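re: ur question from earlier - yeah i can do the single chain one, its not a big deal. heres the input i used so u can compare w yours
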Amino acid sequence: MIYVSNVLMTGTTGLVGSRLLPRLIADGHECRALVRSDAQLPAEADVVRGDLDDPNSLVEAVQGVDAVVHLAALFRTDDEDAIWRANRDGTRNLIDAVISHAPGARFLMTSTGNVYNHDQVRPGVETDTCNPTAAYPASKVAAEALLRDSGLTWAVLRLPFVYGDDDGHLASMPTLATRFGLHPAHTYSVAHHRDVAVAVRLALGGELDGHIANVTDDCPVTVYDMARLAGAPVEGSAAPLANPWSGRMDSSFLREKGFRPSVPTIWEAAANGIL
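and the output i got, formated as tokens:
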């Protein structure tokens, strides 16, 4: 049975948060959404104005909560200073607020599979040393460290390429492939929004306390196939594939904790009309 709690969520207007929030509400959680400005959210959500950049605005947000689900992140910008402020410093401000005003709360943070080194020789596992150079994954590694050292009850979910529920992410793959010169045979670990919720439920129930966990479904997917599923095929290639394990994660640990994806593959999602 899912533990019903008062949950503060950040990032509720993002691709992941906007799909996770109604699922947690449906599970019976009383959800408080931290927003900077007006936003269309489920009527059942308790909306609190605040900003991760403003520590004083976080006091009301965290008071009385049993758990924090911290999804807010910045990465679609060339402003690296802004990325660090949002992802590292904003997380620090939220952690400090929880320590001061809700020290018994369970703090769950989502991170990214991009933290793993591009030249890894197998799928990334949670105990790997991560030394990313790009601002987004580097700032998430720093935020993870802050949470681990906070003294709070914590868990981190490293998310893969998340898709589904008409979020537009899969549809962006053809553009991303062209922009970044992605090899069509390159494979990525993926997970449907429904299974992000499955992993979050495990974490809220305490199964992942004190751990980092990779989230993936049962079958990684090539750039070529993602583009096909998005309706905009890319050219194939027989050129050698550099860094073949970049973007791949091993989710064995999460499965040991009871995780089973409700959408095992992207092909099943396509067959069921939930891309």
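The two ends are 28 Å apart (CA to CA). not sure if urs matches, ping me
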